[in-house]
Amino acid sequence: MSGLVNFLEEPLLTSPGQPLRVAVYSRISGGIRDGILPAGVLLPREIELGNSLGVSRTVVREALMLLEEDGLITTKRGVGRFVANSLPAQTLGEFQSLEQLLSGHGRSIAVEVLEFTRQPVTDFVSEHLGLAVDASFWFRESVVARDGARMALVQEYVPDEHYLSALSPEVASCLPESADTATTLLNFITQRLGPVFTDESCDVAATIAGPTRAGHLDVKSSDPLLVLTQTARLNSVAAYISKSALAPAFGHLAITQWKPA
């Protein structure tokens, strides 16, 4: 029990503007995924969780509702809330940032942003996002490390603020605000607004690192890499691309392809 108490009482890490319910959701879901809150265990009461996490009972209740919607907990009327006996698979189908996929209790995640620039549209971006030839987009390249080891080189592409403003002014405002933050763009937007993007496609390709990627990931040029190219929609319109080169040390990754009924 002391391990759970210490886990819950760790300070919540939030970015400016991030809703507290998102931070509480992340803390509890991380505890569930990492086995700190085992399957079937009874969760502490709302007021106890609020006291441990340093937030109001209302914030806890909102986070618990999200956890139940995602199948991580269940409610037994008159008894309390329990961790689900079987958890939904955590896969790329949930469209998570690389920081989320790599994180876990006790893990240290660090992001180094190499470039964040506005560029004229390219064939690659036009093909995936359907932008006009005279449009522009934002390009962000980052290295994501876990426990000091470089795990992934992430390239992200989103339309410029003018285009995004028609889809979501809130997302458009995140672009300049993210400029000085050490995080991937997807992670910044998700922390600020919640999961606003929906997954559209994920292409997987095996390749070798080559000199440029090898230099960023501290691997040999001849080492194998897995490259994931993902496209996501914002309000039903393609508005985000990521191309992630994963180093061999990344480990096991489950990918689920599905179509809604």
TrEMBL record:
SMART domains xrefs: HTH_GNTR, UTRA
GO molecular function: DNA binding; DNA-binding transcription factor activity
UniProt keywords, alphabetically: DNA-binding, Transcription, Transcription regulation
CDD domains with a match to the protein in the record: WHTH_GntR
Gene3D superfamilies listed in its UniProt record: Chorismate lyase-like, Winged helix-like DNA-binding domain superfamily/Winged helix DNA-binding domain
Matches recorded under InterPro entries: Bact_HTH_transcr_reg, Chorismate_lyase_/UTRA_dom_sf, Tscrpt_reg_HTH_GntR, UTRA, WH-like_DNA-bd_sf, WH_DNA-bd_sf
GO BP annotations listed: negative regulation of DNA-templated transcription
PANTHER family linked: MANNOSYL-D-GLYCERATE TRANSPORT/METABOLISM SYSTEM REPRESSOR MNGR-RELATED (PTHR44846), MANNOSYL-D-GLYCERATE TRANSPORT_METABOLISM SYSTEM REPRESSOR MNGR-RELATED (PTHR44846:SF1)
Protein name from the UniProt record: GntR family transcriptional regulator
Species per Swiss-Prot/TrEMBL record: Terrimesophilobacter mesophilus
